[in-house]
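[job 0412] stage=complex_fold ligand=coenzyme A status=START
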Amino acid sequence: MPDQNSFDSVYQHSIAQPEAFWEQAAEAIHWDKKWDQLIDDSDAPFTRWFVGGKTNVCYNAVDRHVDSGHGDQIALIHDSAITDSVKTLTFSELQQQVAAFSGALASQGVEKGDRVILYMPMVLEAVIAMLACARIGAVHSVVFGGFASNELAVRIDDCQPKVIVAASCGLEPGRVIEYKPLLDKAVELAEHTPDKCVVLQRPQCAATINGDRDIDWHEAVTKSEPKDCVSMDATDPLYILYTSGTTGQPKGVVRDTAGGIVALHWTMKNIYNVNPGDVYWAASDVGWVVGHSYIVYAPLFARNTSIVFEGKPVGTPDPGTFWRVISQHNVKVLFTAPTAFRAIKKEDPEGEYLKKYDVSCLQSLFLAGERTDPDTLQWATDQLGVPVIDHWWQTETGWAICSNCPGIELLPIKQGSPTKPLPGWEMDVLDDDGKPVKRGDIGSLVVKLPLPPGTFPTLWNARDRMFSSYFSRFPGYYESGDAGYIDEDGYVYVMSRTDDVINVAGHRLSTGAIEEVLASHPDVAECAVLGVRDALKGELPLGCLVLSSGVDRADDDIITECIALVREKIGPVAAFKLAAVVNRLPKTRSGKILRGTMKKIADNEEWKMPATIDDPAILDEITLALKSLGYAD
Ligand code: COA
Ligand code: AMP
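[job 0412] stage=complex_fold status=DONE, emitting structure tokens
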């Protein structure tokens, strides 16, 4: 048996004996029926875990704790820094509300396997609706509120929901975002039409209810009978979460039932080092993977109290909000994105607001979503006096690939590294020919197959895309899409993406998708979007536009229209505000746009004139355009 206090020992055990490792982790959850086969790789690389097993996600997250006598423990705390209010739900209350909403969904015709889209802000009902779907075996797909109608429509057409659940509005600092008109437009744009839309009316804004299609949340609940948990196959899908790929068509990452429960439950003690009853706070949004895994499922599986926070790290009302929440609710572990800490540091560099609160309950801070830059890591460590742990993961993986694990053994922290591969993850760094590189050399970060439980068995409706995106370039490996290196001590460094994905304030965006929108402007002949460095958000999208010949309108007007178009088609979350008109784009002789070189120039990094460039003089013009936007200086 491994030494449970030695990271290396636990890690080696997980790699040498994966079946024994995951079997033991699986003992900790409730099964209606145990699996017949722990791992089924007969259809490799599409691995299935716990085949033949039966369980239910909602039972493991909610009912199980009520049945074991913890019904009075607080399961969820809703803290809205925008409306200045706090609400709590015990596990018993959560069970009752989830069962009631399951009934409401069932009475609208939702059955096991049907898809339900949730377009919800950070309210308790978002969590209730997710759990209600899981309870009756419906597959939820949460769409982040910052996406516009067009993005919602693309998701409606891809997963074809029977029902959409939406709130009347979301609340951003200083403004109410009406969701219902966005939903109505999305349904109009989409080819698929949902049978019903269930609308949660928030006090800040009353949505119009459209005839037969829409039904009020409370009315739907009142008119139906509560539902019990349905026993699901271990490999049945729990949810689809769309994430940016390299094109405008997002990837529908599928998470299955049992693997997610086993892996996420395991992470709470071993990675985050929390025990049942502890308060855990992931300051993210239910629309992202961090929200799925660490606002909703993992903390509830492990009987933690989870905080559902509506607000921002700054401006709601000040940079002391995070400290207020930690102190008021006795938070033991905070998980957020580095950008949130950069925002706080920018407004309160000396930590004056922190002095107003007792945050001694905080045991550690975990950061993910983008690389934690050493300055931010140092600042957070100095301010909080607790371990600040960068960990690396992706929507696809559902939980961290690399992390320090204080629940097993806190390893020395090296700035700029998310530490080592976690138990269950065997990593390598490969060159373009698929050969392992020397320690310390940069290459593609890959994971040896099979992927551990709780990751993604497939992409919704896109098995071929799953194969070509992740498994085809390096046979026998999962290609993460990130580049980096592993040092002499086995620490991993994640440096950049190898594709057209950028990371804006911890949000993953596709430059290809933004380019598609820009190219649809009638005056734009060609364009290139780069992720340029930004001190607050990590990266920002910047567009270079080549206009069609004969266009004689003012550049500024076209730029303004292009910015508005991206906001309308993708949403405010794209944060697209930087664009310049150029005469030509730099290309290789074979016609490939040299985005990498443009980015290096913008970020003021060293760059070499590409040998294959068509016309080197173009780069002077690009440099001038980037300078006009405050870059390349
Ligand atoms: N619904 C509607 N609009 C939204 C939205 C939502 N749920 N979330 C964000 N937006 C809007 C914002 O209001 C903003 O609009 P604006 O252009 O009119 O100002 C735009 O989308 C960009 O949002 P964001 O990138 O979040 O910038 P911000 O200036 O509002 O806040 C931070 C900056 C750093 C404070 C904020 O990004 C943050 O807290 N990030 C934490 C990171 C995080 O949660 N990451 C998730 C993965 S862990
Ligand atoms: P998402 O799928 O939105 O979670 O984004 C995943 C991508 O964010 C990864 O592929 C990385 O590019 C980046 N990322 C997430 N966490 C980290 C981290 N700790 N260090 C470096 N990059 C990260």
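The two ends are 57 Å apart (CA to CA).
[job 0412] exit 0
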